[in-house]
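User: Please predict the structure of the protein below. I'd like the answer in structure-token form so I can feed it into my own downstream comparison script.

Assistant: Understood. Taking the following sequence of 432 residues as input:
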Amino acid sequence: MENNNEKRENTPNANREGGHNNHHRSNHHRRGGRHHGKPKSKPENAVNNGENGAESAEAAAKTDGAENVEKVEKSEKRDNNRDNNRRDNRRNDRNNDKNNDKNKQKKKPEPESEQFGSGFVPEPEPERKYMFDYDPQPIPEKDEEEKNIEVVGIKFRNGGKIYYFAPGEIKFVKGEHAIVETVRGVEYGEIALGNKMVGNSEVVFPLKPVLRKATKEDDERNAENRKLEESAKPIWHEKVAKNGLDMQLVDVEYTHDNAKLCFYFTADGRVDFRELVKDLAGVFRTRIELRQIGVRDEAKLYGGLGSCGRPFCCNTFLPDFAQVSIKMAKEQNLSLSSSKISGACGRLMCCLRFEHDTYEREYATFPKVDTIVDTPKGRGVIVESSFLTGRIKVKMNNDQSIKIFGKSELKPLGMIKVKEDVSDDLKHLEDK
């Protein structure tokens, strides 16, 4: 028996088993506390000791076997519980996914026949919005920019564009004159806007300063420069003829300090005027600049009256030239005749451009030409549409007649693809 006990003590699980047995014994003693007070009985003889030792060894073996079985059962039970928990979690996840899908399907609008039972009359729908209808969105209000820059607006003689300059401590009134420095040099300009405060977004930096208010001597010198410009025109024509160039003079301009003399001209193509510049510089003894401009810039410099009877927009208030196309004339229902839609410059009228935005905004809620529509009298195609009068002419499919309807009577269905053919006499009106 001693050898068997020694073997058990040498096994790797000896400490674990011993600890478990000790723990078991301590619990046993705790549960049966009455045994603590009883003295241990001494063995009567060696035989009894041997028998008692054998019985105790056998009991210990049975106890160890029972404990091992109990451990295995607990481990299996723990694994089964863990597997069951995982299985339950997966089942719960699948159920949650199914519930989410059902909720999404419930949110989708059902057909009217399924949504409303028999005998139920739904409320009338609001006016249906078609492809050409839209709800005007309010323009978001921008945060007011802090106006912390003092400027003065100055206008020069060539055009109506106003340029900002820094007045410094000088106070100006509209109609006065000032001397400023520009990219062309020192110039003489007229005050179009007095001192005012503007934000950073309205200024093109760097902001050049005003040199001074124009004095009486500056006014006299400006008048003298105008006379010198007129006297330079005959010399220009002489030198151009000498070099055999095809150039039409538009304007001549001296800077206020006579440091530069600029000639504005038009030509059909590129011109090699290097020899002409040398000839002009030998006569005027100053810096010569030749600048080729287009026909629209020519009209801006000359000025005049348009077909409406008013002065040219480009010469009075239009600061820059924007692209104008034949499409703008079509959308405004104008006659596609070159004499009706072209200005004095021979190009499309500038007013087509800045009126186009209004037409574009209004026609966003109005059926356009070549739109297929359903009418109370059948289906047809729009041949004329005007939001100004509210009258829409439709060519009916059944008898090819023209009938007039209002916007509310039509239901747009689509557009006809029409190839836009522009005649050659209209193509040259557009800027290249």
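That's the full token string. The chain has twelve helices and 13 strands.
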